Task: structure prediction
Amino acid sequence: MLRLENVKKTYVSKIGLNKYEALKGISFEVEDGEFVSIMGPSGSGKTTLLNMLGTIDTVSSGAIYIDNVDLTKMKKKELSDYRREKIGFIFQDFNLLNTLTLKENILLPIVLGESKHKIDFKKLQEVTKKLGISHILNKYPYEVSGGERQRTACARAIITNPKIILADEPTGNLDSKSSQELLSMLELLNKEYNITILMVTHDIFAASYSDRVLFIRDGKLYNELIKEGPRKEFFDAIIDFEATLGGGVE
Result:
């Protein structure tokens, strides 16, 4: 589903005197329908990596394949179309428009631009019912709770049947109850809709919902943990491993 081959990213100052290597040659694969978390200390390269995968930024070298399509070979217009059609995003701050209803926010990726998708109202009803927001679709974001806004963002992310969902600290602005509800929703989307999810997080509790955790440190892939038993055991395993790294997570 997703394959990275020796991906590097170097930022150079405007006058070219200073260089910063954010990613130093990262390679890994994600299977179709897998739920993977990326963890690591602040400044380790997690967000940079997510920006590469979401085609928001470009690699300095290396290749990124999603469904056997090399994103690094695409032109700007092709990347824009691919990002809109094949990648779903869930952000920490929701990124909903307060001037649109929840329903309009969910359908925005379809009605915006040159999307090839037609509005599937049956799917809209099905998805919003599963996410528990079907009864508030005519409300505006400022009229609902943080958890309901985040579930709206989940619905928007999957309405175009994306190949992959990229989640950037999705529980960062939520209380513990709303965080657990959101993670349960992500787990549901992953299992019932077979959607591949890649989530960047500092939160061990959030990471324990995934099938596998990749640890990044100083721009390099440091290690990984694979869930082999109950979520509680995986949670404890992540804590134990993070202790060997010297922290960097919550």
